[in-house]
Each structure stands twice: as C-alpha cells, then as structure tokens.
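Entry 14. Structure prediction run on the chain below.
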Amino acid sequence: MFWVPLLLLAWAVAGAASLRLCLAALRGADAAPPGGEAGAGRGLTLYEAAFLSGGPGRVADVTLVAMARQRRLLLAHTGWATVVDPDGRDDMERSVIGAIGPQGQSPIAPVRTAAAAGDAVGGIAERLIRAGLAVPDGAGRSVADAVRQVRLAAVAVTGLAATALLMPAPSDLPRQLVAAWFTLPLFFTLSCLAVARFEVHPYSRWASPAGQRLLGALPRGAGDTGDDRTYLTSVAVLGIRAVGEPELRAALAHRDPRQEH
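Output returned:
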C-alpha cells in the first residue's frame, strides 16, 4: 500500500494548485466595475495601450520612442539619452525629462526605470483600473502564475503515478486499478486548465478581458514606415521589437536587468 501516500500527495498538489487558480481568477474578476460592460464606448490612448500591453516599462518605452522620432530626444545606440527639447508636452514626457536630470544627458536604463515608477504612469494605471480595463497590481501576474502552477501540478501527478506503478504491486490490487486512482487528480488538474483557458485566457498580467478586447481592435503598422500614430501603436502593443530603426532599437535594448519589461 505504498502507493496510497503518493495518491494523497497527488491530490494535495492538485487541490492546492487548482484552489490558487480559482482564487486568482476571482480576484481578477473583482476588478471589473459593477454594471455595464467595461470600456464600452471608449478608446485607448497611446499610453493606455502601452500599459495594458506591457505595463509601466512599456509606457516609458513608447514615450522614449515618440520623443526620439520627433527629434526632441536623442537616443544613442550606446545607451545614452540626450535632451534636445526640455519642454515636455504631457506628464509622461515631463517625467522622462525629469528622470534624465538637469545635465540633459543620462544612461537610458535608469531613465526608463524612473519614468516607469513615476506618478504619471501611476495615474494611467489608476484610470484603467477604475474603468475595468486593467487588473489591480499583481492580480494579472497571479493568474498567469497560478496557471503555470496547475500545469506543474499535472506533471507532478503524472510523476507520482509513474512512481507508484514502478513500486512492487500489492498481490490483491491490479496495477490498472492503481493507475485509475491517479487519473482522478490528473483529470481534475486538466479540467481546471481547460476552464481557465476558456474563461480567463489569454493570461494577461496587465489587461482585463475588456482591455484585451480594446487592444485587439487597435491598428498596427510595421517597421519605420506608415502613419506615425500606427507605428507608435505597434510599439505600444508589441514592444521594442516593433521599432524599425536599428540604432533606436539598439539604444532601447540597454535596460536595467532588475526592471521587468
């Protein structure tokens, strides 16, 4: 009967992971405002699209790209930013210029980190959360992490089942019956994954389902051609891989390894 503790362990792993996923999904659902569909009748600004796609760091990236394309900020491929026009046109640009400092020149990595942590990005996040387009800080990550944990639980249950089947079989219990007992926690974890994929997929860290629908409706360009607004929207949604200019893309590749992006 050595397989019984392994079966109990399999149920414990499957139950804990699935419970975490359910709680994370409920927290994400609580972010939606009561009454009506979130985001109905409104669009997204460039900064809002960047936040919903990649969080605070993406907002800083699109601000840097926009200012560089307008020649109000020089971004060198060596990883340095130089202010050309010290008058920011909105809170985000003023945040970037303030992060560069009074000398007018700074490495890009700390500028990006400081701008991403600034009050301007915080205001964008608060507006999106109130509108039901963004999830509260940490909720989106917790759903993705919980899904990953359930997947690992399914692998763990399979491993525990294999271990049990490799043990000497009890004389009064066929191996097929032992395997059948382990299929129950495995089926439970796989069912949770299937429900999660239907209900909360894609597992965005930042955007709620309503926010993801608005993101999907945005026009996107490619490379460094086409309408400037469409180009910047592509950078906001896809990140620096959508930057068409090689030198600008090389400049933005310099970032603080501690800063998530």
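The chain is about 60% helix and 5% strand.
Filed with the rest of this week's runs.
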